[in-house]
Specification:
The structure holds two protein chains of two kinds.
Chain A: H1 9-16, H2 19-42, H3 48-67, H4 77-95, H5 114-130, H6 139-150, H7 155-161, H8 167-187, H9 189-202
Chain B: H1 2-11, H2 17-29, H3 31-66, H4 83-112, H5 115-122, H6 136-146, H7 150-159, H8 165-177, H9 181-196, H10 204-217, H11 221-233, H12 245-256
Helix pairs in contact in B: 1-3, 5-12, 6-7, 7-8, 8-9, 9-10, 10-11, 11-12
The chains are: A mainly alpha, B mainly alpha.
């Protein structure tokens, strides 16, 4: 999909809600906004590598906000991306105890998204604590669970895309994979609890 | 299996009104079902989150690799090579780059792998919250452990005359968290000795796992590797899922250093 195919912010937001067009929408946002976002970090004591980390986190946070209907295009995508990037970068600076670095350039630029973005970033932080367990299960499990829960495919559709003998075998496999994942979550119940509580509190 | 499917259907709104009411009734009555539903919700969030991260990472890599900028942030003209002329050159270059990358990666791994890096990757936090019924002092010790005040845990257990397996285990884990691996190995060993003559052995799976990690901490790599390989092969032990082939590979490199 080219730039021409996204004539408006609303079209980009729509594309971000489905797996098939997410990649194109994010690529588009990178092309249009990357330089601006990189500049936010660079003019505030960061370097291009810092900017790469921050921009990836920005995009992930933005996708989640769009999918949870926390952002429906009330203002421009540029504004919300700016606000997310700014907040992530300030948070990173504070965490690395570099408070002496100049962050005052942001001072007067608060806008109406501040609170929503701040809440979303807290949720993201909670997710970051636990999302690594997904990499602890095998590749075949990751594939099935991704198709079922992320791409929201039916067992019939998944069966067509995989080599499982029949739907029952696939169901059994999916169950075993989910069991492995929930067992891993159980092994770190404190983290899971913190994560779940954060989600509940921030709903 | 049915329960997870039912939870999936409930969360995605696929149950009929009657089925939904029946499920909600079961949910209200069964703590076990509520716990499972909570875990399924967390698991779904993890799956979605990890995939969004993967998608963004792929777009990011592509964007950065194709971004034609120089130090002044100006566009650089990317010249197209003449295909016919340098097809072979390209092939050789790619092959050479690949070999160099592999060699570089192997050298990097060899040099950078340390016991700390393996422990950081493999260690998961131990949670003692499932323990029930105990005396006040043990409750205090658990509170210190949960608060990650490991020094206080060790001090409190030191005051006890009769240390049960839970106390020994919490002290071992506290020493482990403080990187006093030798000390933690002593308590793990004591519990294992007690287990040998007990009808109800304690912390069997946990000890197999954390003792192996403590052995890495004390640089006993060969024994640690042997134990972790055995543990990984034992599907009964839930900790087996935490050990990847990559962890074992890194440990082998460490052993060969």
């Amino acid at each position: 999909m080219t730039k021409k195919e996204f004539d408006s912010d609303l079209m980009v937001l729509q594309a971000m809600k489905t797996e098939n067009s997410l990649n194109a929408a994010i690529s588009f946002l990178y092309k249009i906004h990357y330089d601006m976002l990189e500049n936010i970090v660079k003019v505030n004591s960061g370097n291009v590598m810092d900017a790469q980390d921050v921009i990836q986190e920005t995009m992930i946070t933005f996708i989640e906000m769009v999918r949870e209907n926390k952002f429906r295009g009330e203002s421009s995508i540029k504004s919300i991306l700016y606000t997310i990037t700014k907040n992530i970068w300030i948070s990173k600076i504070r965490k690395t105890k570099q408070e002496n670095l100049r962050i005052d350039k942001y001072g007067a630029e608060n806008n109406e998204f501040e609170e929503d973005v701040s809440i979303q970033l807290q949720k993201r932080e909670a997710k970051t604590l636990i999302e690594g367990v997904f990499n602890k299960i095998g590749e075949s499990c990751k594939k099935i669970l991704t198709m079922f829960y992320y791409e929201e495919l039916s067992f019939k559709d998944i069966l067509e895309k995989t080599d499982y003998e029949n739907e029952q075998v696939l169901r059994n496999k999916k169950y075993k994979c989910m069991k492995s994942l929930t067992d891993l979550i159980e092994l770190s119940p404190i983290t899971a609890k913190i994560f779940k509580n954060s989600l509940d509190e921030l709903k | 299996m049915e329960q997870i499917e039912k939870i999936d259907n409930y969360l995605s709104g696929k149950l009929s009104t009657e089925e939904r009411l029946q499920y909600e009734n079961e949910l209200a009555q069964q703590q076990e079902l509520r716990d499972l539903q909570e875990k399924v919700i967390v698991a779904k969030e993890i799956i979605v989150s990890a995939n969004i991260r993967k998608t963004v990472s792929e777009v990011h890599q592509k964007f950065i690799s194709e971004r034609p900028i120089n130090s002044n942030n100006q566009t650089i003209e990317v010249r197209k090579p003449q295909e016919k002329q340098i097809f072979l050159n390209n092939f050789v270059r790619i092959a050479a780059s690949f070999v160099l990358l592999l060699a570089g990666f192997a050298i990097y791994q060899y040099v950078s792998i340390s016991p700390q890096s393996i422990l950081a990757d493999a260690t998961v936090e131990y949670n003692p919250s499932m323990f029930r019924g105990s005396n006040n002092h043990l409750q205090t010790i658990r509170s210190f452990y949960k608060a990650k005040d490991y020094t206080a845990v060790i001090a409190e257990i030191g005051k006890e005359q009769n240390r049960d397996s839970e106390m020994l285990f919490l002290r071992a884990m506290s020493n482990f968290s403080l990187k006093n691996y030798q000390e933690s190995l002593k308590d793990f060993g004591t519990i294992r000795q007690q287990n040998a003559s007990s009808l109800k052995p304690s912390y069997v799976y946990e000890i197999e796992y954390y003792e192996s990690l403590a052995l890495i901490g004390t640089e006993q790599y060969a024994t640690a590797l042997e134990k972790l390989e055995a543990l990984k092969a034992n599907n009964q032990n839930p900790y087996s899922k935490l050990i990847s082939d990559w962890d074992l590979f890194k440990l082998k490199i460490l052993k060969s250093k």
